Amino acid sequence: MNTTTRFETTQTNENTSPRWIQVGFWGSFVIAIAVVLRRLVALVLPARSSPSQMLSLDAAFASHKILTLAHILPAVAFVLLTPFVLSGKTKRPKLARLHFLL
After folding, report:
1. Alpha-carbon torsion angle 91, 94, 100, 102, nearest 10
2. Is 54 in contact with 36 (CB distance < 8 Å)?
């Protein structure tokens, strides 16, 4: 006897997350990459005509350039490795260790 409940998912794979979690994950992924790229561009090519709040924020990060790079470069590496580690398709324990090291 096969009964179904209203809480049962319609997905065929047990390891697949609900669609809203996938959308949230990939949306966060894109935002994280965009933020790092924006900050890198602002460090390399400082803007001259932006809103004053943006200019002061860029100046604050530029005054601590090494610290900013030391923070955002490992962060982008972490973000780029996360889909591979969470997918479960890779059987590389070294990749998972590197991910958690970051």
Report:
1. -130
2. no
Token couple for 16: 């697949």
Determine the Cα–Cα distance for residues 25 and 3; give it in Å rounded to an integer.
32
Over residues 13-27, the mean pLDDT reads 84
Are 24 and 31 in contact by the 8 Å Cβ rule? The answer is no
Residue 83 · residue 66 · CB < 8 Å: no
Question: Which pair of structure tokens corresponds to residue 82?
Answer: 């996360």
Contact predicate 72/36, CB 8 Å: yes
Q: Do 79 and 32 meet the contact criterion of CB atoms below 8 Å apart?
A: yes
Q: pLDDT grade, residue 44 (50/70/90)? A: very high
Alpha helices by DSSP H, listed for the chain, are: 19-44, 52-63, 65-87, 93-101
DSSP one-letter code for 18: P
Q: What are phi and psi of 57, to 5 degrees?
A: -65, -45
**Using CA atoms, how far apart are residues 13 and 43, in angstroms rounded to an integer?**
44
